[in-house]
Amino acid sequence: MLRRKKFLFAILAIIPTFVIFGWVRMFPIIETLRLSMYDWNLLSKNKTFVGFSNFSQLFRDDQFLDALTNTAIIAFGAMAVTIPVSMALAGVIYHRTRSRFAGFYETAVFIPHVVSLVPAAMAWKWIFDAKLGPLNAIIMSLGGEAQAWLFDPVLSVICIILLVSWQTLGYAVLIYLVGFRNLPKSVYEAARLDGASGIQSFLFMSVPLLKPITLYVSVVTLISGFNVYAQAYVLASDTQGAPGRLVRVLVLDMLENSFQNFRVGYAAAEAVILLSIVLVLTAVQFSLLRQKGGN
Question: Where do the ABC transmembrane type-1 domain residues begin and end (predicted)?
Answer without folding.
Answer: 68-285
